[in-house]
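User: I'm writing a short methods note and want a consistent example. For Xylose isomerase-like TIM barrel domain-containing protein, I'll paste the sequence; you return only the structure tokens, no commentary, since I'll be parsing the reply automatically.
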Amino acid sequence: MVFNRPGIASMSLGRPWIHDLPGKLIQAAAHGFEGIELFFDDLDCYAQRVFGGDHHEAARTVRRLCERLSLTIICLQPFSFYEGLIDRAESNRLVSEKLAKWFTIARALGTDLIQVPSNFLGPDPKTGAARTTGDRGVIVRDLLRLADLGAGAGFRFVYEALCWGDHVDTWEASWEVVRDVNRPNFGLCLDSFNIAGRVYADPAAPSGRTPNAAADLAASLARLRTANIDPAKIFYVQLVDGERLSAPLDETHPFHVAGQPVRMSWSRNSRLFPFEESRGGYLPILDVARTFFDDLGFRGWVSLELFNRSLADPDPFTPADHARRGIESYHKMARVLRWESHDEKSAVSVPAPTSPVQHRL
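Assistant:
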């Protein structure tokens, strides 16, 4: 029987160039996480600092450390800004150069899974011209190309709709793409933040909600329950909440970034772990989680993908603090949903590193 297992994104324990990757992995394992979504930015930072930019050697070292810590590398992510490009030469370059390199890195890491977020490249900042197409046929063909290349090399891909994506910004749209790609090595990531963040939350509104937030989310979840999605096509899920802002995120807000979608600015600064209402969490994450686990019957990796301004805190205990908060959130969700797999591992007391780890493990 497959049970749920706790994972966390490496970026969710501290910012690269502020908190070192080995230290974050140590804290994840010490607090009871079993898997890690490895962000390329973390690996790149480690490679630049310790291995002279050699990503392959950095990946091999990270793999050895994760093996010692009994951490599974769930995936390498994010393979961004790929599908639906109007510039077909750039699309071909990403396949011939970037994808080939990622296959090499993922193989060195010991993972067979690469995450692809929906494209949010946006318009050209100089001309305003569109850089992506909403033509689903083009999007599907691009991702089918990835899937077939990956199948030949022994890799899988997991596709996730971002709530600020150019054209794919709902779970429905991402599922239609996964369904049409129709390859066994191409699956779906369902993210509570991106689902609720699109139809329930509006950080630019004074209320923080869309006009019909509760009804729209309920309708979306009802469609999810009846979409006949094979749980095996859901490669993993992400659980995370969002902070209710004290003021609308407009051009006067400190989180505002010119040219950046409002929901993206909110996401980068204000995600929270589930059940952190005391920190401002307000999305109906439990309703989304019940749909994932009780209705769809998902069992597998449950990853906590947090982005928040708190991750930039240079305090050396920042990774430990976020690991603690994350695992407490996971265990509370396990208790509330009565997961049979609930097994609170004893956390080992490991002090947070006070300086970047600069040695080969």
